[in-house]
């Protein structure tokens, strides 16, 4: 096991009706004037926004609304948000929604105190030294942004989708009411489930040895997510299953599954090129296609951990080569994704063979020509082979 520091200080307030505590919590964390960041209107239609605002009013906290954040959020809204916060003297950022609203909120939070262009952080040209406090009211279990120090934004000019990690962006508190997830369309619920599973896989596939405890945490979590997901598919109003899924999404990505080990994240980076090129594609949909393709490549080239997944998570018998065992596990994962009605290929998402050149080029532009120290060294040949399997 590698040395590590684990510090994940978000306060999670979980359960029925907890959104009514938003005002009190904002007060506790020193807010005077809040920017409420939200998406395309689901929180208006569900009445959540009104309840959050009521709670803020009761706590004597001023607020300004900032809506219209699109899925796969873009830089132009971040610039707009930064300007608004400066003009209105806002001191606290409160996204009400999913990963897209939360990631935009985080970008605004680091952009406000910075004199330069906030995009410098995402390009790695500058380091985050200050941020306004962020707290979330979560409406979709998926990205895990409610408990992570990460934000992913697409720069419209060039359609580059890049991630930034900084402890200063980790939410002070996150309000999580599983009832709020019952208005999710089936496909969004499913994309979220794939995404949280992918966050665990990215940490599970490692070459770090002697990480049995985190392996088992990851395996248990994946098994539980799949069981609970089937219940949600059968009955979207199942509160208990929704609650289990919601909490899984958080612990999948708050760092717990990644302690003491090198993490991979190559599948996420490959997916970000997909939903970066076409922002109509949900992140989870892209992952449902790329992860099995990545695993299929690894089954042939570096199967040991994929075979372990097959045996321990999908009960594949320990018979035959690691490659054979791994492939059986991948087939079972694909069966599960089919229950969720996920796309199976890049072609199904509208990509053609000539797009692979662009995906490979952008992937290596954004991540380096040769990426070592991950589960399998990524060169343009490897990346191409995986995208081709996905096609
Ligand atoms: O925009 P509204 O109208 O709110 O509708 C949203 C949106 O269309 C809808 N929705 C959310 N909650 C709902 C609801 N509809 C009905 N009822 C509800 N309760 O769902 C759609 C998707 O929302 P979005 O916020 O985009 O979803 P998600 O949480 O999956 O976020 C995806 C983004 O997060 C990034 C992804 O790349 C993508 O851009 N990621 C962020 C990470 C992080 N910050 O740590 C890590 C992830 O790996 C991921 O890359
Ligand atoms: Zn993800």
Set down the secondary structure blueprint:
Blueprint: E1 11-14, H1 22-28, E2 33-37, H2 42-45, H3 48-58, E3 62-66, H4 75-88, E4 92-97, H5 99-111, H6 119-123, E5 136-138, E6 150-155, E7 160-165, E8 173-176, H7 186-204, H8 212-234, H9 239-251, H10 266-277, H11 283-301, H12 304-314, H13 322-339, H14 355-367, H15 380-390
Parallel strand pairs: 1-8, 2-3, 2-4, 4-5, 5-8
Antiparallel strand pairs: 6-7
Helix pairs in contact: 1-3, 4-5, 7-8, 7-9, 7-11, 8-9, 8-12, 10-11, 10-14, 11-13, 11-15, 12-13, 14-15
Bound molecules: 5,6-dihydroxy-NADP and zinc ion (ZN).
Zinc ion (ZN) binds at residues 143, 195, 198-199, 268, 283.
**Strands across the major sheet, in which order?**
1-8-5-4-2-3
Low-confidence regions: none
**Total number of beta strands:** 8
- Largest sheet at a glance? 6 strands, parallel
Number of helices: 15
Order of helices and strands: EHEHHEHEHHEEEEHHHHHHHHH
**Form type:** globular
Oligomeric nature of the chains = single chain
